Model the fold of this input.
Amino acid sequence: MKPWRPLLPLVLALVLTPVMTLVPGASTPAHAALAFAPADRASDTAEELRGFQAVQVALAQLGVPYAWGGGSLAGPTLGFCDGVNGYRDGVCLADHTVGFDCSGLVRYAWYQASGGAVVLPHYSAAQALLGRRVIDRRALLPGDLLFFAEPGGRVHHVGLYLGDGAMIHAEHTGTRVAVLRDVFDDPTWGPRLVAATRPEPGPDAPTTRREERVRT
Done:
């Protein structure tokens, strides 16, 4: 038995909602790409352990406020408003809120979990282009990244998969980092799920913790 598996039920105690499984020939929602390819569960222990550690790091941020542009490799930071994002009811909240946006949360979780070996950009659409693509929902592992877009649009949101159909994410201004129990059936996010990836260390793992500030 893999050494971390006995701990997984404890971490996922809040997310026991069953996962809906699609079958070939059924009607296809926007995220059908996650339902039909043959499963490949040949992941090694090291990558599964990294994903489990990323879950632990992310869950430790439950309740942290959403801040547009917020989040560094070291933790939550002050956000900013850019003329479009960071506002609620016309009032800029981000520039006086310390927290994470969606890409900042998963970036932080994976950097910390990998000991600095995985450095994601601070932009969900760019994150979706990196790592190993997971095209079968049955092959998803805790720690995988789930990406969301409007029909025909670019990726605009990302969450971190917890297992059992749940994910943790920083949703939007005015919310806090939270667990979504059944992302696949959620009326808001389920139809917008367009891709999933598994972050991997780069060919040259970083030897320094220097960070480049990138807007999300």
Notes: Strands lie at 77-78, 87-88, 91-92, 98-99, 132-133, 145-149, 155-163, 166-169, 178-180, 193-198. Residues 42 and 172 are 35 Å apart (CA to CA).
